[in-house]
Amino acid sequence: MLAPVGAAGKLFAFGLDVARGLFKRPFQMREFLQQAWFIASVTIIPTALVAIPFGAVIALQVGGLIKQFGAQSFTGSAAVLAVVREAGPIATSLLIAGAGGSAIAADLGARKIREELDAMMVLGIDPIQRLVVPRVLACMLVAVFLNGLVSVVGVAGGYVFNVVLQDGTPGAYLASFTALAQLPDLWQGMAKALVFGLIAAIVASYKGMNAGGGPKGVGDAVNESVVISFMLLFVVNFVMSAIYFQLVPPKTG
Amino acid sequence: MGVEIKVDDLSKSFGKQLIWGDVTLTIPAGEICVMLGPSGTGKSVFLKTLIGLLKPDKGSIIIEGTDIASCSEKELYEIRKLFGVLFQDGAMFGSMNLYDNVAFPLREHTKKSESEIRSIVMEKMDLVGLIGAEGKLPGEISGGMRKRAGLARALVLDPEIVLFDEPDSGLDPVRTAFLNQLIIDLNAQIDATFLIVTHDVNTARTVPDNIGLLYHRHLAMFGPREMLLSSEEPVVRQFLNAQRVGPIGMSEEKDADELEAEKDEELPPLPPIPLQQEPSSGIPRRSQRPPGEWLKEHGVTPPPGSFKENMSMSIGG
User: Fold this and answer.
1) How far apart are CA A113 and CA B101, in angstroms?
2) Which of B62, B184, B288, B310 is the most exposed place for a label (fewest CB within 10 A)?
3) How far apart are CA B92 and CA A134, in angstroms?
4) Any residues with CB less than 8 A from the CB of A95 and at least 6 apart, and which?
5) DSSP B202-222
6) Are β-strands B32-36 and B210-215 bridged in parallel, bridged antiparallel, or unpaired?
7) Closest approach of chain B CAs to the CA of A102, in angstroms?
8) How far is A109 from chain B (nearest CA, A)?
9) Which A positions 79-118 lie with beta carbon below 8 A of chain B?
10) pTM for the whole thing?
11) ipTM exceeding 0.90?
C-alpha cells in the first residue's frame, strides 16, 4: 500500500540529487547547449502549431460568450488573459513533456540498457551531473521560451480569428489588451513554464535512468514518463494558479 | 601489480528474490579468475556488485582496505579508478567516435596533453587491433569490434583490476579464441587482477588460474583451475564438462523424479584436463603455475590424457 509513497519519495530524492549535481563543477556547457538546441528543435514547430488552434478556440469560446454579455470590447483582453495565464503554460507543458521529456527519457533509457550509464559510473563520472543537470536546465530554458512563443502565437491566432472570422474590430481587440491583463500575468506564465520544464525533465530523466531490461523497458519508461509528467504538470498548474490569485489581486476597471 | 579482492559473506536479492547468498571468496592479486554459472544465476549481478553499481544486502567487499559495500560515494568513485570494466556490449558512448570513447577516461581523469593522449589511445587501439577504425561511431561497427573497443577503453587508465562481463557472448569461436589469447597476453603484460564472468566452458577450462561456480543461489565452489577440473562434485562436474547428467536441469534445478530417473545412468568419465593457454610471447605469466602442480600437491590423479600438447578441445559426453 505504501508503494506509491516510496515511488514518489525516490523521484523526489532524485530531484535532490539533481539539485546537488547543479553545484558540482565543471558545468557541462557543451551538453547544455546541445540539449537546449535539441529540445528546442523537437518542440518549436509542434508548439507553434498547437498554439494557433489554442488561441482560436479561446477566441471562439470567449467571443461567443462575451457577445451574449454585450461586452465585445473586452474580447481582446479576455483572450490575452486566457492565453497568457493558462493556455501558454498548458500548451508548453504538453509539448515539453510530450516531445522534450519523451526524447530525454528515450535517450537516457537507451543509454541505460546499453550499460553506458554503468560504464560512466565505473569511469568515475556521475551521470546525474554529466547528463541530467544539463538536460534539466536546457528543458527549463526552452520551456520559458516556448511559453513566450505560445503567448505570441496564441494571441495572434486569436486576433486573426476574432477580427477576420468573427467580425471583431481590430482596434477594440488590441486596445482592450491591458484592460484586465497586467504584467504579473506574464511573470506567472514564465514562472509556471520554468517549473514545468524542471518537473518534466526530472521525471523523464528519472524514468529513463531507471529503465528496466531491454527495448521494452525503454518504451515503458518513455510512456510512464509522459503520463506521470502530464499528471504532475496539470496539478502543479492548478496549484500555481491558485497561489497566484492569492498573491496578485485581479485588476479592476 | 594487481590488487586482491576479498569478498566475505556477500548476499544480494531483488525484492524477495534471493540472487545469491553467503558468497565468500578471495580473488588473488594478479591472477585470472573465471566466474561460471548457468544462465540467470546472477553472474553479472555479482560483477556489478564488485564495482559498487549494485549494493549488496549484506557482507563486505574489501579492496585495498576499503569496503565497497559500505563506503561513501566519494570513496567509491576513488576506488573505481582502479577498475577497468568490459561490459557485455562494450557500452561505448553512442555520441562519440571510438577514438573519443577510448580517450574519454584520460581526458576526464588526467591532465595529459592531447598528444600524450593520442599516443596512449593509439597504443591501446593497436593492442586490440582496431587501428583504422578510430573515426567510426559505435553504431557503425560490429559487436565484436565494440567489445574490443570497450576493452581498449577499460585499459587506458592502467587498471589494477579488469572485469570482463561475458567477453565471449555473441562472438564466433575464432574471435573468442583471439580474445582469450588477448586476455592472457594482457595479464602477462600488465599483471592486473582479472575476473571474467562467462558461461563458456572452453574459456573456463583453458584460460584462468582460478574458477568459481555460481549455482542455485550460492557459490558452489571456488579454487584453482585444476581443483575444479578434477572435481567429482556433481554440479561442478556437470557444468565444466557440459553434460546433461547431473543436478542442473533445463530450468534451474532438476526435481526429484528426474534425478531418480537418471540415478543409474553411468556418469561419463572426467575428460582430460587441457593445458592452460600460454601468453603468445612464450614467457609464462607471473601467476601461472606449472601444469599438474596443484594436483600433485593434493595427491589427486588427473584423468588420463591430461596436459597433452595439442589436445582436442572437444568436451562433454
Assistant:
1) 18
2) B310
3) 21
4) A43, A46, A47, A50, A146
5) HHHHHS-SEEEEEETTEEEEE
6) parallel
7) 18
8) 13
9) 110-111, 114-116, 118
10) 0.82
11) no
